[in-house]
Write a structure and sequence with these properties.
- A hairpin with a 2-residue loop joins β16 and β17.
- The radius of gyration is 22 Å and the shape is elongated.
- It has two domains: 210 residues, Rossmann fold (3-Layer(aba) Sandwich), CATH 3.40.50; 90 residues, no CATH class.
- The strands form four sheets. An eight-stranded mixed β-sheet has the order 5-4-3-2-6-7-12-8, sandwiched between helices. The protein has a four-stranded antiparallel β-sheet with strand order 1-9-11-10.
- By secondary structure, it is of the alpha+beta class.
- The chain starts with a helix and ends with a strand.
- It has seven helices and 18 strands.
């Protein structure tokens, strides 16, 4: 099956792409100290299949959590994939092991009915959001703009999955530029495997009776500090004497740098670099000026990155912070 078909499905209506435990563990291991005495909310999670709820409930004592809450859209059961037909939904909460076996037993998990359908934008789900210290989930890609806007409005710490192309959104890029959100540690925009419902016709493999699909360009977005943010990119290339390797854009005064490894250490004007730069971005080393991604000129978007009339892929515009 073509990956672009799956990307299209993930970005539109079919948002039931369930994150595997390995993807979650690879990222969350970098943030363990952040969770001590915190209330964690997973507010886009079918409790029957959510590996986020699984991870936090089975590591509750190790992480020293205070409470775990999970909500799901139009689902009233914790025993099967949601068919999104229920008019009302539930949320579940877990406050830790009670019988000493270090396992989240069913009788220790509280199942609470909601008045509405469990949409993260509903008033009662917002009330749960207000209780949370950190939000960790895989939100619907089709609602990513609304989702991240809500997190910022309520000033929440978060660790969520999205597509790296989301950075070009008019209401997302300023958050990147102003260092209010950034990429996480473990994903580099490569393909990520997701478990999908059996009803989905497009998939890449079946394993142990379950369907799986991979989606390209998947990254973690967060506003939690991590050690990768403090690592400087080691620069070895020079601009002086190699000017021909760094042409300027047709409509903006900046040089083209086709790969992060080619960033010159001696050029102090504006440079256009690939989106992959954000995986290694250190805000103490570089300043983000804007982006070149669409023909629409906005405050931080300066049009397509054309060179001699030929378009390049989207570019992040940066400058050295110091000589």
């Amino acid at each position: 099956m073509e990956n672009k078909t799956l990307n299209k499905a993930k970005s539109k209506k079919k948002d039931d792409f369930y994150t595997t435990i390995s993807v979650i563990e690879d990222e969350l291991k970098h943030y363990i100290p952040h969770f001590k005495n915190k209330v964690v909310l997973c507010n886009c999670d079918d409790p029957s299949v959510s590996k986020f709820f699984y991870y936090f409930s089975y590591n509750f004592e190790k992480l020293k959590l205070k409470k775990l809450i999970a909500t799901c859209y139009k689902n009233q059961t914790i025993e099967m994939f949601s068919d999104y037909k229920a008019e009302r939904s539930i949320y579940i909460e877990y406050t830790g092991d009670k019988n000493g076996n270090r396992v989240p037993d069913p009788e220790e998990i509280g199942v609470v009915p909601l008045k509405g359908d469990g949409d993260f934008r509903s008033p009662e789900c917002i009330d749960l959001l207000k209780q949370a210290d950190i939000v960790v989930t895989n939100p619907p890609f089709s609602l990513f703009r609304e989702y991240i806007k809500q997190l910022m409005e309520y000033k929440k710490k978060f660790l969520i999955i999205g597509n790296h192309n989301s950075i070009s959104y008019q209401d997302v890029f300023p958050l990147i530029k102003n260092n209010e959100i950034w990429f996480g540690c473990s994903r580099d925009g490569s393909n990520v495997w997701f478990e999908i419902p059996d009803s989905y016709k497009t998939y890449h493999k079946i394993e142990n009776g379950k369907k799986y699909a991979f989606v390209a360009g998947v990254v973690w977005f967060t506003n939690l500090p991590h050690k990768k943010r403090n690592q400087e990119i080691i620069l070895v290339k020079t601009y002086e004497g190699n000017e021909k390797d760094y042409p300027k854009y047709d409509d903006y005064d900046a040089i083209e740098v086709g790969r992060v490894a080619k960033i010159p250490k001696d050029y102090y004007g504006v440079m256009g670099v690939p989106i992959t730069f954000l995986y290694k971005y250190n805000p103490n080393q570089f300043e983000i000026i804007g982006i070149m991604a669409t023909s629409k000129i906005t405050e931080f978007n300066f049009g397509y990155p054309n060179i001699n009339g030929k378009g390049k892929y989207a570019r992040i515009l940066i400058k050295h912070r110091r000589k």
